[in-house]
Amino acid sequence: MEHVITKTHVDEAAAYVRTRASVEEGALALVLGSGLGGLAAAIEDGVCIDYADVPHMVPSTAPDHAGRFVIGTIAGRQVICMQGRLHAYEGNSPQQIAFPICLMGALGATELVVTNAAGGINVAFGVGDLMLIEDHINLLGANPLAAPDEPELFPRFFDMTQAYSPALRTRAREAAASCGIELREGVYIATLGPSFETPAEIRAFRTLGADAVGMSTVFEVTAARAMGMEVLGISMISNPAAGVFDEPLSIDDVYIAARQATHKLEELLLAYVAE
Question: Which structural domains are found in the chain, ordered by start?
């Protein structure tokens, strides 16, 4: 795939997906982060489509990411789910990472729920906590739409003042309250990876106002907002960030924590969709 997003490529990818599954206008797009792919089991009558089969998409190579779309329903609403995402640390360009979001928007998704596993910078956060993302800080060093203009897909300049919808956050709070789930709230900061951050970097990020750190999400949210989609972001705190405690970080710990918190996130998402 060329490292640009074009309407022609998006249309070709959408045409292929429609040969495998019917997608309605107003569908919910869902991105499942590290260790959270098991949530796809909540999708009823799911049709699975590998990323590698979709024109102009690249496969996912990240551990614990299935690398496929699952299209079905949750609580009666149609869902287009990314079971596993694409990351810059895999060698993917920002445009390759944003492409599936543009595809889901072209298929009819009007709302995006993006999830991730993140390190807790805020010392009040514990492993397994769920954090509503209020805003983000992009330290990935790029923007996925810094490319030749494609006005039929999205505007050149667009507002990011409310990248994460206040209305959807209110719905999420109501859903959490109905389930008895405590939600944290804060700012997510994205770094390139694949190495974890240093304690000095975490101290700097805390000074910048970040509450959680990860290696994803920002490119996807940027593309979704350009496509006119409303966005809800949820981070699952999988580990204390570097330097919060005097312990080394392990990716295995991230996956273990994510799997343990999956039931709580699944309960929240089911209640959120049912709202």
Answer: 7-274 (3.40.50.1580)
